[in-house]
Amino acid sequence: VGKTSVARILAKALNCQKGPSTDPCNQCPSCLEITNGSSVDVYEIDGASNRGINEVRELRENVKYMPSRDRHKIFIIDEVHMLTQEAFNALLKTLEEPPRHIIFIMATTQPHKVPTTILSRCQRFDFRRIPMQGILNHLKNIAHEESLRVGEGALRLIAREAEGSMRDALSLLDQVVSFSNDVASDQEVTEILGIIDRRVVWDAGDAIISGDVPKCLNIVDHIYNYGYDMKQFCQELMTHFRNLMVTKTVKEPHLLINLPHDELMELGKKAETVNLETLQYYFYTLLEGVKDIRQVDSSRLVLEMLLTKMASLKPVVPLDEILARLDRLKESFTISGEKRISHTSPQITGRVESHESSPQEKDIIPSDIWRDMLRFIRQKNLLLASILEHAHPSWLDRETIRLSFRGNSFNFEMINEGYKGKLVSLFSQFFKRDVKVSITGDYGEGIMVSKRTDRSSHPIISDILEIFGGEITSFDERKP
Fold this sequence. Notes:
About 55% of the residues lie in helices and about 10% in strands. The protein starts with a helix and ends in a 12-residue tail after the last helix. It has 21 helices and 6 strands.
């Protein structure tokens, strides 16, 4: 914000005939020429259009000569990150041993693209964005002094779209004043600047939270017919859900949300109708949706399915509520009088273990919670969800989930051999904390007999059995 302007002010301070001074006079020939951009000793170079090694070589030749009149010869290089690597290398020698009369001022919006060899030889000053309220107050003063008929709501929209840049705010204000006939209303500003009406975004958020799929589709149709950018709408909707999250978690949301007081009050009422877990799900679903919109031509179809997916979701149950329900459920079960179900569960291994489930274990995870877990997995990994359809959830506490597979070893082996790490990751995402997964298998005596038969048919084992007259009673599978 104001990088080039500050560079010119610094050039004035250094070359002012009444200086050097922190307060240049703006009256001497040096100051006036710098203001007009006609100073022979101050060069403004656009790094985007003069980015090659040939331009830098010309600059190095110019560096050799003394200033024509002023104390210093100053080079202001704007968007310096656009220079090529060869150009930076050619400039590096001059920066290592600059002549006493030469000063380089480099401006960039992406300092991470400037080589460290250049950055290490410069003093660095990071500029912050101008707060939205500061821009709004300045626009109000301009509107008052120039007798511009622009409402405060319209000025607020302009300040928001400027994103911390006063220059952009003034440019947008010029556009609005030029195109509006009488008083520039909020509606006119949204049309002139191509901004999506915030009320449309809020209506979409309400429809998603309430599960109103038809209304979501009508809103997408409205956005499409008005020619709004679908990606921009997703970003506005993400901002809306972020604001709901801030309102729900922060005591003074007005410090983090730039909205009028009445809208903040309305936002607070909306935040009471949804929990944090659901807001997080909405946000990250939209984040993935923005990536999909970029990759396809039919952005309307993607947005329709995206809003339908979110509106069809049942509210995400917080983990604390799930565990509280499980605690109440466990209290209602007893084994052999007062004996409770053990919390100990084996870790994931490749070994097939047989466990006889007690009747009390069958519904230890409520079916609605298990359905929510499967629905979440299905959205992330369809194959893994289809495997889990055959699993029996038998235990859940704050650290461990126990699943068992019965009757068929295929699904157990699929999970154990290729998907156990992914399963742990997805369950941890669902519960918003690290969890362990314990998987067991119970496939019946038939499989055990089959494996016994396979091993007894091995030539070495069959010779041992024949010599000693023995039989296989048990075996232990070990990986090499």
